[in-house]
# Entry
Amino acid sequence: NRKVTTHRLLEMKQRGEKISMLTSYDFSMASIVDQAGMDVVLVGDSASNVMAGNMTTLPMTLDQMIYHGRSVVNGVKRALVAVDMPFGTCSGNPTQSLESAIRIMKETGADALKIEGGKEIIEDIKKIIDAGIPVMGHLGLMPQSINKYGTYAVRAKDEDEAQKLLDDVKLLEAVGCFGIVLEKIPAKLAGQAAKAVNIPIIGIGAGGEVDGQVLVIHDMLGINKGFSPKFLRRYADLHTVMTEAVQNYIKDVKTSDFPNEKESY
Ligand code: KIV
Ligand code: NA
# Structure
């Protein structure tokens, strides 16, 4: 059960072994996810939505990502841990981007970073990789750009955006990214991207012709009930499980059933 490395993920792609990836934001959840055998744990800036209750990922700060990152790293022994660079910390100022990247790596102990964007921020990504920090790219639907898109609809459905995505995938591989997340794009295009490069392509809403899959843990456990895109498969209904447990506790407190004699000193 040796630690998963970027090198090992490349070997998995070569062998045709699919890569499992799931988000976590805290110590307890990350411990469960790691011990279940996950390959990659992503400290996503989706923490903004599922932990903080914000509408978008934009409010997430560097300090908040570091807090979540450190908490997750404390719970993980085997999986590779990647932390999202939050909105505004990798946006065309390579020196500043590297400073932020180094802070995350130093203060969390994570193994890698994930960064949204292609050609526009390629110098930032190159500088971070050149400093010895492994970077996973993120293309297709990039939630940090939601105000530019104005919609969470499927991306790269037209020829121009599809071609740009393929160009960006190759560019990210060329500067040394160890993998790329493709979010909410046509399955056929994602499959083409996976064939075009040697680094693993991890999909979310990008079909099955890629090298691995990632989901947000609150979504796949059914904690969140308000978010039901077509690409989401729910593996549990924790919303119901937790609601019933909490209601039973309330009832037991109200009826003085809890605590009983055995539960008292
Ligand atoms: O923040 C996140 O959870 C992500 C995944 C959805 C890929 O970036
Ligand atoms: Na993210």
